[in-house]
Amino acid sequence: RSNIKKKILQLNISPQATEWASDEDTKRSCQSKGKSEGECQNYVRVLLISGRTLFTCGTNAFTPVCITRQISNLSQVLDTVNGVARCPYDPRHNSTAMITEKGELYAATVIDFSGRDPVIYRSLGNMPPLRTAQYNSKWLNEPHFVSVYEIGRFAYFFLRETAVENDCGKMVFSRVARVCKNDMGGRFLLEDTWTTFMKARLNCSRSGEIPFYYNELQSTFYLPEQDLIYGIFTTNVNSISASAVCAFNLSAITQAFNGPFRYQENPRTAWLATPNPIPNFQCGTLEEGANGGNLTERSLQDAQRLFLMNDVVQPVTVNPLLTQDNLRFSKLVVDIVQGRHSLYHVMYIGTEYGTILKALSTTNKSLHDCYLEELRILPEGKVGPIKSLQILHNDRSLFVGLNDRLVKIPLERCSSYPTERSCMEARDPYCGWDHKQKRCTTIEESSNMNQWTQNITECPVRNLTQDGGFGPWKPWQPCNHDDGDGSISSCLCRSRFCNGPVARCGGIECKGPTIQVANCSRNGGWTPWSSWGQCSSSCGIGFEVRQRSCNNPAPRHGGRVCVGQGREERLCNEKKPCPLPIVWTAWGPWAHCSADCGGGVHSRTRSCENGNSCPGCATEYKACNLEACPEVRRNTPWTQWMPVNVSQDGSRQEQRFRYTCRALLPDPQQLQLGRKKVETRFCPNDGSGACQTDSLVEDLMKTSVRTSSQPQGARWGSWETWSSCSQQCSRGFRTRKRSCLTIEGRINPSACVGSPVEYQDCNTQPCPVNGAWSCWSAWSQCTSSCGGGHYQRTRTCSSPPPANGGDICIGLHTEEALCNIHACEGWGEWTEWGDCDDEGLQHRTRRCDENQEAEVSLCQGNVTQSRPCQPHEVPGKRMIAHVNRTAADCCRYNVANAYDMTHEHEKFHTASSSQIHKYKLRSSGSGKLGNINSVYFEYQYNPGQCVLEFGRKEAFLQEKMIHSCLILCGQTAYLRLDQTQISCAHK
Questions:
Q1: pTM score of the predicted model
Q2: Which residue, 274, 287, 295, 921, has fewest beta-carbon neighbours within 10 Å?
């Protein structure tokens, strides 16, 4: 861009050009200020694409101006703005700029005519304009701006400037500076000025006891895929010429910005490290309610004095990736290339002489300073710096900008390597040798990856030694051939020379015959037989071999080969038998298991034949009968009845005990003591019970009477109410208590004769047993072989059956499913289901499409099909009755004409909040259903009302409708059957 003046070019299939020159008045004004005619031109310094527009800025004879143009038509001007702070006045001043995705322009340039006010400036877009502090050398000190990138929340600027922190003379350092894209500037302090500006030094040096620094940054290239930034660094123009390429990770840059600052209190003090108040600053902002809403969370006082970082940004490698002495690099681009085994970073580096160096970027020491080739762009004898480099990946091309021209170079030039050797020794990541196509190709052009090879293990050798190669064969000519036995044959000969190419620079001479002989044949002859070889076996029948060769003489130049066998075999050791082998016999059968259950062992044996040295064991053991033994239980006899809780009047309870022993037989050592079982019964004092401890109680009573002495005036109080029974069923007991009151009114249990506690049996009825379903039976046979049949399976409430008033099984005892639903041969499709009729059924039909001439009908099955209607589809079978009775009214229906509804109950939710309950009724009391075997209906409960839906099945033997009402009493639902009024009570 530096020396392109007056014109803007668009290079594509249809090139465009537009003139953009300064007017004469502007030029005269420029020259009147002391500038030359060459300086007072319009040099295009900013060229940025933003959507479908092109933003351009030019120096315009030291009067900067910016114009927005249409990309499709460069001559169409959309907008014109002042170029100050967006473009330099002087075309020789370095500057850089970018437009973000939101349309904000970030520019780094000089803002005045004399070039003494450098600035990093934001304009356009919706954010307020901001700049660096004016005339403050600590912010920017004679900077040369190189590039700018938008990365995440920040805008990163790369530059070189005079190091203000250096105490020993003038020194130029390379820097990276950054600002937050959401920076709104300060309030009262740092107004219209960046509050997030920070900068850090970039280190690119050659290691050693005294490092050699490449201090001046010339060009950068950003690889967003790997967050890697490449940079060209050179020595000062007044020093020796030297260049280097260093690469920096974005994480290393972020680490430097997260570290401490370097601060100088006043010009007389040294620069010292200062802690970072916000070590991980990510452009956070203050809340709206806080003072200074929308401002970044960084303190304005810190932003005014803390901007130079103390830590230096270190490159990815200790030494530069590439160095070159006596040469200055100018521009750099990097391409990522997929090779055979890995990805390679290929660098294209422009030089001050107008050449381009192609090099590898790698941390592999064997590929350090690895130059692949040098491209000469300018004609022979001309030199000039490379102004710009750009890779166009869609076109796989490299565009090179010079002072007066633009050059396009293909990135992939594999066809320039004609041989496999030249292709492989070029070490070019773009190229490899395709063994199938026999040419040097790119990886995309290869026919098969398995036949595409590439070898980038070392750098290519410059001034390459050339090995010799044979040229083409000469034509055939007559010649004589000495057979070696004194005879000479007349033959045809041809020759070739090692001149394609000739070996040079120590190259290897050609290897191989230089003369070929033909048409002078000689027949071959056998040599004598060799001695017989060693027998193939030491015992038993084997064979031995002898050989001869067809080289006495050997056939030559088309002569006949020897006739006969070149190898003979014969038997040997025919009368030397081998000893019998020592082997095991087959295993015998397994012996009987040592235990019938609980785990035993059994064994089997084998014997060693033809000796006694067989490897291994003659007996093998294995576990058997691992299943547990059945448990055997034995009960002890009951003990004698013993009285307990004996009252003074002789009433008491009796108890007896027994124990259960159980063992996993047949091992008697595993006997275990079972839990004790206790039986208790009540014995009244009147002798009416069948108790066996009356004599013991009489003795106790006599002893108690003799030993007791009741104080005068003591008496028993009234009995309290009976307590609740100790068990719900299977015999329990209950108690009641009384108190003994003395004449003084105190309670003294020992003052009265008799027991203060009385016991009584209760709930002697057996406990209920709830029923449980048995397993489902197997599915029955399908009722039809085609056209849709059904099969069913059943289960019974017998595992166990309900007893002693226990609950019956809940659920269906029969399940049905469709089967063989494929259409029968000859039948057409079923029609849609019809409307429900008065019988509560739906019907559909089908036609038989078979050929009428057929002797046997193919249509098997019915022409019509019926099914019960859904309850909500049965006409006239839906009744709604509002709840209008109390719980007392409801419960009086729990009489002989009530039927339990809890049998075979299903519940499911509808789309609304209501619930649907389905019941199948059977008689559970003394009520009568008449001719009705069972009733199927649905109950839908909504808050405030009861909806009864009546279905109809074959079980209805009467034509009239049975009116029913759902009665809810407590937790039990009942159905009242009558033929008069529908009434419904709900609790």
A1: 0.50
A2: 287
